[in-house]
TrEMBL record:
Example of a GO MF term: hydrolase activity, acting on carbon-nitrogen (but not peptide) bonds, in linear amides
Domain CN hydrolase, first and last residues per copy: 38-288
Cell membrane among keywords: no
PANTHER family tied to this protein: DEAMINATED GLUTATHIONE AMIDASE, NITRILASE-RELATED
Protein name: CN hydrolase domain-containing protein
Organism of provenance: Anisodus acutangulus
Gene3D superfamilies, alphabetized: Carbon-nitrogen hydrolase
Length: 314
């Protein structure tokens, strides 16, 4: 199988974050040009603790998206595996050149579609930890960019379960954007959604146009905050937001809220499944003229106070 992990170009910004961007021109000598609009899709599914079953579901959804004319399909966090027992995710974690990811690279290449694979269990620096990694694959089956989840979900959900993601997951430190035929993509994962400074960095410091938010929100937090937070991120950054969600009952211990959404830069929902717990896809067009229009009519990038304004002594 053809497998390629592109080297990311890294630099350090004054914010203290590291920043990585993947240039389109480095892959297969192929440059990227953008039409005025391009069709994308977001998937909703209920992953289980069976790699083959989840791959079969993803394969079916890829075919549906390609048939609908989508050039990018975004999958939710934990698309390839949701553990039933404690420690299962660590046992199946693999490096990016392992057989699990090679299978998804082949899937992208065979269907000539880009894939956003949120929340892959990438093997960590030791046997006790993994990375919650968002992987972007192009239509040639090449890994174009990766982002490791920065904010880990260590919470006691009111009326719900206790989660401590940091007990088995290494936190990422790099902000990641990638150029693509669908605009400049900002990569995030799930709990990141609650931290607007990351999205501000992606838009105003790194020129993101489309924000990807693969997630597996709990039913309690999803009911209360999912749509509100997503629309807020779209409005305040004037970006499209594509939020692919896990949905329904994974096992006896775990449920996800669902409600996969695509939101435009004005905060309007332009893609949504009719059933927030079903498996399927929603399709919408990324309209680059709308991005430009919203930003021109409401020029918040010009009106924002610089970092020095907030950092000055009182």
């Amino acid at each position: 199988m053809n497998f390629c992990l592109n080297t990311q170009l890294s630099s350090t910004k004054s914010s203290g974050y590291k920043f990585a961007v993947t240039s389109a021109s480095t892959v297969a000598g192929k440059s990227i040009s953008m039409a005025n609009s391009v069709r994308v899709a977001a998937a909703q599914m209920t992953s289980v603790n069976n790699l083959a079953v989840n791959f079969s579901t993803c394969s079916r959804l890829v075919k549906e998206a390609a048939s609908a004319g989508a050039k990018l399909l975004c999958f939710p966090e934990n698309f390839s595996f949701v553990g039933d027992l404690e420690g299962e995710s660590l046992k199946i974690a693999e490096p990016l050149d392992g057989p699990i990811m090679r299978g998804y690279c082949s899937l992208a290449r065979e269907s000539s579609i880009w894939l956003s694979l949120g929340g892959f269990q990438e093997k960590g620096s030791d046997d006790a930890h993994l990375r919650n990694t968002h992987v972007l694959i192009d239509d040639n089956g090449n890994i174009r960019s990766t982002y490791s989840k920065m904010h880990l979900f260590d919470v006691d959900v009111p009326g719900g379960a206790v989660y401590k993601e940091s007990s088995f997951t290494e936190a990422g430190k790099d902000i990641v954007v990638a150029d693509s035929p669908f605009g400049r993509l900002g990569l995030t994962v799930c709990y990141d959604l609650r931290f607007p400074e990351l999205y501000q960095q992606l838009r105003f410091n790194h020129d993101a146009q489309v924000l990807l938010v693969p997630a597996a929100f709990t039913t309690v937090t999803g009911q209360a905050h999912w749509e509100i937070l997503l629309r807020a991120r779209a409005i305040e950054t004037q970006c499209y937001v594509i939020a692919a969600a896990q949905a329904g009952k994974h096992n006896e211990k775990r449920k996800s809220f669902g409600d996969t959404l695509i939101i435009d830069p004005w905060g309007t929902i332009v893609g949504r499944l009719s059933d927030r717990t079903s498996t399927g896809i929603t399709v919408a067009d990324i309209d680059f003229s709308l991005i430009d229009s919203v930003r021109a009519k409401m020029p918040v990038s010009k009106h924002r106070k610089p970092a020095e304004f907030w950092n000055r002594s009182v």
